[in-house]
Each structure stands twice: as C-alpha cells, then as structure tokens.
Design goal:
The complex is a heterodimer. By secondary structure, chain A is an alpha/beta fold. Chain A has 14 helices and 8 strands. In chain B, helix 7 links the parallel strand 6 and strand 7. In chain B, helix 8 crosses helix 12. Chain B starts with a strand and ends with a helix. The chains are: A alpha/beta, B alpha/beta.
C-alpha cells in the first residue's frame, strides 16, 4: 500500500513593521497614535533603565544583571496585549514587560540589587516573579491557567521563555499539559538566538522553534520579534483566543540580544562585532521611531524631551531603590513557612 | 465508626476534604478512571468529576510544576507521585520553586500544595519502587514532611496537610497500606503537623521511627526484655523535639530506625539533635538501625536491606549492654 499523508502543517511568519519603519497596512492591528507612542516611549524607557542597571552594576551598586537591549519590542509588544486581570509569568530578561504591567520600577532594580522585596509584587498586579532556572516557570503558568479556568475566570496567562528553554523537559511537559487541558495560556519565546554562548543550531535541529507547538496540538507562529506591531498582534490574537476557550498558543519572537548574556558574560568571545552590527540595523526602537517620524509623531525635540523626562524618573527610581530601609534580620526567616518553628527560632537567635 | 485500612483512610480524607472545599483538586497519573495504582483515589472521579480529579499525562515535572501554578492561583492541588522513585524528578520544582515562593515573594504568594508519595519497601516491588526519599525533602527549607503510620493518623494528617498554607510532602508507607486496620472516625478531624506520638511507653530505651518502621519497632519492643518507649514521629518537618527530648531524658538510650540509607539519613539529623539537646542524659551512643548505603536489592535479596524487628532487637540489646 502506498504511504499516506496523515497530516500536513505550516508555520506562519508575521512581520508588520520592517526594519526600515515601513508598515504593511493590511496586517496592522488596531492601535491608536496614543497606543503606538506608549509602546515607543516604554521601549525607550526600558532601554534607558536597562542602561542605568548596567552602569549601576559596573559601579558596584547592583549585582549580576541581564540586559534586555534589543528585545524591547518582543517584551513591550506582548505585555501590552494583556488586560490587567490576565497573568504574566516572566523569565529573567523582561524589563519592558515589567514596565508595561505596572511593576513599580524601583522593585525591578531592587531585585537585581539583591533585595527580596523586589519580588514582592503589589497585590493588585497579576505578575508572577522573575524566574532564574530556565524553563521551570512554564508549568507554573500552565497551573495558573488551570486555576483560572477552574475558577471560571475569563483571563489568560502569558509566560515568557528564551530559546534555550525549548530544549528542557519542563518546556515539553508544560506545552503538552497546556495542549491536553486546552488551557488559556500563551507561551512567548524570546528567541534571541543565543543561550549564553550556545547558538540556535546547537540548541535544536528544528528549522523554527514555532513548529515545536504543532507536536503538542498548539497553534504556533513565528513573528519578527523586533517588530512591536507583529508581536502585539500575535499576542493579542493568542490571548483573545485563549480567553474564549480557543486554547494555548506558542509564539516565537525572533530577535537578537544586543548585549552580553549578563554582566558576568563577554559575548565577544562567541560572536563577531559584525554580526551584532547587522542586528543593530534591525533595532526595534529605531524602526518604530522611523514609523513615527513618517507619521509626523516624532521629532528630535520630542525625543530630547522624552529622554529628559525618563532620565529624571530614573534618577528618582534609583534613589528610591537605594534609599529603602534595610530589611531586618528576621525577614530572612519570616517567610520560610507561615510560622517559624523552634528550629528556625533557634537559628535566628544564634545569628542575632 | 468504620474500621479502615490506611488506603481507605487516605481515600476518606480526600473525599471529605474535597466535599468540604471545592478548591481541593486531585491530580496525578492514573488517579481518575483507575482510582490510582494503589486505589487510594478510588471513587473520587465519580464523585467530583474530571475537572477535580485529573488523569494527567505521564509527566512528573509537569504534575508538580502545574500544581505549583494551581496553588499560587488559589486552588488546592493534591498531587500524586505514583511511586517514590518517580518523585525524584519532582525535586527540582519543589526545591527551586514550591518551597521558596513564600520567601521569594515576601509573602505575596504562597504555595499550599500537597504531594502524596507512596514510599518505602519490603513489598517485593520493582526497581525504583521501594525508595525512602524523605531526607531529600527534609533538606529543603520551606517544605513540610509528614509520614503517617496508622489509618487514624493517615486521615487526620492528610486533612491537616490539605488545610496547611505551606507545601506539604505526605509520604504513604506502602507496606502498611493494607497491613493494619483500625477504627477511624468519619467526621472532621485533623492530626496536627509537627506533633509526634508515643506509641508505647517505656523507661530503658527510646525507639524513634516513622512510617512502616513504627510497626517493626513495636514488634521489637514487644519481645524485648528492656522496657522500650516507641515514638512515632509522624512529622519529620517540623519536628517535635519536645517529645523526643522528654523521652531521651527519661530513658537515656536511643535507637533511631529508618528505611532510607544510613549516610545523611534523617537518623543522622536526629542523632545530632539528641546529643545537642540531651548530651548529659545519654547512657549510650545514639544508635541507628537503617537501610544500607547500597542500591536497594531486587526482591530476592531485599530482606538484607531493610531494618526488621530482629535487627532492632539486637540493637536494643547492644544499647542496654553498652
């Protein structure tokens, strides 16, 4: 008997705003000028805050820090598609997502300055904590989506991961569970093409990461991760589908990490300056700026004013983060359990 | 009052807790249609439906990882690891996340889940089906660890675990699943986490055990010339140091019994604590009767590995004659 084809699949790719700032009007999502300016200003803010973090680290005022430079569109574009009642599960390189979701920015700094209070998310914000062990946050997002569905809440979960995460078991188990349980969860993979030094071809033999969704019965799409409009549209479609029972989606945002993996890394060891330069030309902020300029929404004076305002805000944020009163010694014990047992009390007394 | 086995008592606790609180859900491999490989969750699917009794894919990390998200999301997952040996991949999620969520978020989030694990050996099981992983869990700040040894405690401790606001590892001694029956009230009661119980009073030597080893200790105590006190810890973390200290200061002699390997087993912790708290009361070194520092043998030779009433009896004699 001849071989039959049981199933055929396609992996769609979406780009709306190209690197020259030109938009494909047919694909453009509904975004007001105010929305677009918000996205742009958030990305600029994210980049400047990120730069501040790098300086603080160099000056010894912050510990190891992972820069987000180059990935602002994937972050801001996706987080902007959420409603406040939705949940966001970040990984560790997500500065603009935190800003969009309303995390007080001094908390973002506090965490990287080595203070647990940075992860004490305000009660009214549905963000989970930064996750350092790769891919381990994915099943949590799935469980949260289950809890939301079980409690008949009409909200979705957006969880971030990097390209390296797609090689881990947690990723496959989480994707599989999300598919089997048809949950309102969206996986957004920031494929910046490097897991520290490990390139994509060492990470996977798949042509795209998006196609990994297919095996689990999920919708999968690759988008230009440096195109805030494409990321926004793909995420918006995915969360809308999730909220209305359409199940999970996997989005691969194809982007590039312009900086080092963290401040403890030197990317020049494993990639050329030329390669980085090529990707600078595709900078997500520059292309959005060109788009705004075309629309007469951007001038140099506007940019100057914007950056001055942001810088002033950042100065206040740094002051707030550095000026916070120290945590008492009890705080390192207080949250281990709901109550301290005799053993922890003894240990606390021994170091007081 | 019904006379129940340990399996039936756990099942009853689950039924009652699920009835009491709609937020309680059960998830694991084969826990629904099949009622669990040990029948612990039998009948729950029919009572509470597939949304609350979830037959999961075969994915230990996914089970515990999603349970973490559920717990953070306001429902109360009671997850099952099908066997002790298969709980090992879950340790990453427990150690890296479940145990730390309260602390990392400074109390903004909590992770009140229960993980049930059938554990222990001496039942001629397959490889990876006779393990005693309690030490791994006890070593993780943020987890609570309980081990019932009677049907009454099985029900009361599980209810307490489900109502607790921290992640609780609930270890079920497989050997005792159907070995003992006792009367268990069908009404609502809990056995508090962190409280040991003296199963037998004595004056010469204190035997400390949990899970299946409690029965071995009671057997050994029964046949011993010396007057043996038997403490069933029930809760390894938090530990009831008061009950231990009171007994040790009375008898001056201690034997700790557990199935897990000797090196770095929980007996080592107990032994250290006892000398810290009761050094001057000791008349003999604290002795350990434990599993061996080897891979648990397959069924034909497994009897060499596990502590038994005979091995404990010998230890009692040695301790008394020290």
């Amino acid at each position: 008997m001849p071989l039959k084809t049981l199933a055929k699949f396609e992996v769609p790719y979406l780009q709306i705003l190209n690197e020259h700032g030109k938009v494909d009007g047919r694909l453009m999502p509904k975004l007001s000028d105010k929305d677009v300016l918000y996205l742009y200003e958030t990305m600029v803010y994210g980049r400047l805050l990120d730069k501040t973090c790098l300086s603080l680290q160099r000056e010894g005022r912050m510990y190891t820090y992972p820069s987000s430079e180059g990935q602002e569109a994937a972050q801001a574009g996706s987080a902007f598609a959420l409603k406040p009642e939705d949940w966001m599960f970040p990984y560790f390189r997500e500065i603009c997502s935190h800003i969009v979701r309303g995390l007080p920015p001094e908390k973002y700094l506090l965490y990287w300055m080595g203070d647990e209070r940075g992860q004490q998310i305000p009660e009214n914000i549905n963000n989970f904590m930064i996750c350092v062990p790769v891919a381990t946050q994915l099943p949590h997002a799935v469980g949260m989506a289950y809890a939301l569905k079980y409690q008949k809440k009409k909200s979705a979960v957006l969880v971030y991961l990097g390209d390296g995460a797609t090689s881990k078991g947690d990723f496959h188990e989480a994707m599989n569970l999300a598919g089997v349980w048809n949950l309102p969860v969206v996986f957004l993979c920031n494929n910046n093409q490097y897991a520290i030094s490990t390139t994509l071809d060492k990470q996977t033999a798949s042509k795209t990461l998006a196609q990994k969704a297919i095996a689990y019965g999920l919708s999968g799409i690759q988008v230009d991760g440096n195109d805030a409009f494409a990321v926004y549209k793909a995420t918006l479609d995915a969360v809308n589908s999730a909220r209305s029972g359409g199940g999970p989606t996997f989005i691969e945002a194809f982007t590039y990490r312009l900086g080092d993996h963290t401040t403890a890394d030197d990317a020049s060891k494993y990639r050329s300056a030329k390669e980085v330069e090529e990707w600078r030309k595709k900078d997500p902020i520059t292309r959005l700026q060109k788009y705004l300029e075309e629309k007469k929404l951007w001038t140099q004076a506007y940019q100057k004013k914007l950056e001055e305002g942001i810088q002033k805000k950042i100065n206040d944020i740094v002051k707030a983060a550095e000026g916070i009163e120290p945590q008492p010694v009890e705080s390192i014990f207080n949250f281990t359990y709901s109550e301290m047992d005799w053993n922890l009390k003894e240990q606390l007394n021994s170091i007081k | 009052m019904a006379t129940l086995t340990l399996v039936q008592a756990i099942n009853l606790a689950l039924r009652l807790e699920m009835k009491r609180d709609k937020k309680v859900i059960v998830l694991g491999e084969d826990v629904g249609v099949d009622g669990g490989v040990f029948r612990v969750t039998e009948g729950l699917l029919k009572l509470y439906g597939p949304e609350r009794v979830i037959d999961t894919p075969l994915a230990e990390t996914g089970i515990i990882g999603s349970a973490i998200g559920m717990a953070v999301g306001g429902i109360k997952p009671v997850a099952e690891a099908q066997f002790d040996g298969f709980s090992i991949p879950m340790i990453d999620q427990l150690y890296s996340h479940a145990a730390r969520i309260r602390n990392r978020s400074r109390g903004r989030f909590t992770c009140p889940l229960v993980l049930r694990i059938p554990c222990g050996g001496g039942i001629r099981a397959l490889e990876h089906h006779s393990e005693s992983p309690e030490t791994f869990f006890c070593h993780i700040p943020g987890l609570k660890v309980v081990v019932p040894s009677t049907p009454y405690d099985a029900k009361g401790l599980l209810s307490a675990a489900i109502r607790d606001s921290d992640p609780v590892i609930y270890l079920e001694p497989k050997k005792l699943y159907r070995a003992i029956k006792e009367e268990v009230p069908e009404n609502d009661f809990t056995v508090p986490i962190g409280k040991a119980i003296v199963r037998r009073e004595g004056t010469d030597v204190t035997l400390i055990a949990w899970g299946a080893m409690v029965q071995e200790c009671l057997k050994a105590a029964e046949g011993a010339k010396a007057s043996c006190e038997v403490i069933d810890l029930r809760s390894l973390k938090p530990l009831d140091i008061e009950t231990i200290t009171a007994s040790v200061q009375k008898t001056g002699r201690v034997i700790v019994v557990h199935e897990a390997p000797k090196t770095c087993g929980f007996g080592a912790e107990l032994s250290a604590l006892i000398q810290e708290k009761s050094f001057l009361s000791l008349k003999a070194p604290v002795t350990r009767v434990t599993g061996l520092d080897i891979i648990i043998p397959l069924p034909k030779l497994e009897h060499y590995y596990f502590p038994s009433a005979d091995k404990i009896a010998k230890a009692i004699e040695n301790t008394i004659n020290y």
